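Much of what follows relies on a compact textual record of a protein's fold. Here is one such record, which you should read through line by line:
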Amino acid sequence: METLGHPTIVAALIGASTALAGMAAGWVAATVDRRREARAEAARRRALRRSLRAEIHVQSRAASDVDFGAMADAVERRLQEEPDFTPFVPLRDRGWMMSQVREQLGLLGDEEAEAVLSYYGVVRAVESFERDLRSDAWAALETERKAQAFRHMLEMQATEARLAERAISALASEVA
C-alpha cells in the first residue's frame, strides 16, 4: 500500500495547502488594507495640520507688529481725557477652521494638540473680552477699571500671539 498515493492523504494535503494559501492571501490583503488606511490617515493628518497652520498664521499676522504696551498706554491716556471713550475693538472670528475640524484633533500628536488647544483657548477668552468691551457693562465701568480691563485684554492678545507662534511651530515640525 502506498501511503503517499492514498486519496485521503492527497486530499488532506491539497486541503491544507489551499487553507494555507487562503490564510496567506488574507494576511496579504489585511496588510495592504492596513497600509492603505495608514496612508489615508497620514494624508488626513497632513491636511489637518496644513489647515490649522494656515488659519492660525493668518490670524497671528494681525498682531505681529502690534506694540500692545504702547497701545494700552495710548488708550489709558485717552480714557483719562475722555472717560466715555470706547476704543474700537473689531470682532474677528479666529476659530472657524477649529470649529470645522474639532472631531479630527485625535489625529494630532500630543504636543501639537496641546499647542493648538492652548492657542484656541486663549482665542475664545479674547473673543469674549472683545464682546465685553462692546457691552453696556463696559460703559458703566469707572475710567480706571476700563483702562485695567483694556490692558488685560491686550495682554491676552499678546499671549494669543505667542501661543499662535508655538502652535504654528508644533504643527510645522510634524509636517513630514
Summary: Helices lie at 7-61, 68-81, 96-101, 110-132, 136-140, 143-173. The chain has six helices and no strands. The mean pLDDT is 83.
